[in-house]
Amino acid sequence: MRLLLLGKGGQVGWELQRALAPLGEVVALDFDSPAPLAADFTQPETLAATVRAVRPDVIVNAAAHTAVDKAESEPELARTINATAPGVLAREAAALGATLVHYSTDYVFDGSGSEPRDENAPTAPLSAYGRTKLEGEDAIRASGCTHLILRTSWVYAARGGNFARTMLKLAAERDKLTVIDDQHGAPTGAELLADVTALCLQKLRLQPVLGGTYHAVAAGETTWHGYATHVIAWARERGHPIKVAADAIAAVPTSAFPTPARRPLNSRLDTRKLRQTFGLHLPDWRVGVDRMLDEVHKTPA
Ligand code: NDP
Questions:
Q1: Helix or strand holding residue 6 (H, E)
Q2: Average pLDDT for residues 117-136, to the nearest whole number?
Q3: Structure confidence by residue, pLDDT tens digits, 229-257
Q4: For residue 184, what are the β-bridge partners?
Q5: Do residues 123 and 108 lie in contact, with contact meaning Cβ atoms separated by under 8 Å?
Q6: Domain limits, the chain
Q7: 2-161+187-220+268-283 is classed in which CATH architecture?
Q8: Can you tell me which atom of ligand 1 is nearest the CA of 157?
Q9: pTM of this structure
Q10: Which of 66, 131, 285 has most ligand 1 atoms within 8 Å of CB, for mutation?
Q11: Averaged pLDDT for residues 87-103
């Protein structure tokens, strides 16, 4: 099997390079991959030539315009990368008989209510990022290609910066922190998403009828405040230098940190369809977060 991976340097793309390797030959490309295999999503039509040259059995698209606030001021660029380009990939996948894997987001929903949403819940994005990601989903579904769209949330990875690392840095420097406590969701590791992708792909290759849209997040739920508190407690227990006292992590509403893009308050996603269809277990969000922390923060001797 030949797989074409796009966005190989992102959080999820990096982990996919590892997780897809046992499935077949992986051609992994990024924004600045040299010609003739162009993978610049601002030039969607050039992706068609790349797909035709590689002739993959599976295309995995981990590239996206993920700067949620910036997308508000450059919605056309976000649309090109998040909607037009995936549409071209889907068209080419359909023509080739290839399977397309794509990632989407809880931001396609408006985040009202307090129940986890399933895949059939009505979409109503609050931001340019959410709107363009939804357009990307729609283009893929309309193309007729066999596809797997995995909607996820609050993605982190050991590689690069992330919320947990920022909180640990601030907790070591300050004696008071303020963190949002009215957005609810599940931090989901890029590692988990990549492994889920590979496992789903194995089954999907044998049963293309299983293709469709799925919610893929770690189990359990928290808030950004709960996430920060967990991470800081983890560090304190292991003897890391933490200045902030446990009761000095103040919980504040989203309105305390105004941003250009509105975020959904309820990002809870129901993953039953994914777990039942593919026979998967999704671990609690703390399992992946603790593992990531163990990986990036050496415990002091
Ligand atoms: P990252 O931002 O870490 O990675 C995105 C990748 O896309 C990077 O490699 C980036 O390259 C690449 N990229 C950006 N612009 C272009 C372009 N014009 N041409 C080619 N490549 C480009 O994102 P994640 O790994 O976190 O996200 C993976 C998927 O998951 C995306 O579809 C995202 O929408 C979705 N998702 C992410 C969430 C999150 O919290 N991060 C939450 C929910 C869904 P470079 O680094 O060079 O710019």
A1: strand 2-6
A2: 98
A3: 999 999 999 888 899 988 899 999 999 99
A4: 223, 266
A5: yes
A6: 2-161+187-220+268-283
A7: 3-Layer(aba) Sandwich (3.40)
A8: 26
A9: 0.96
A10: 66
A11: 98
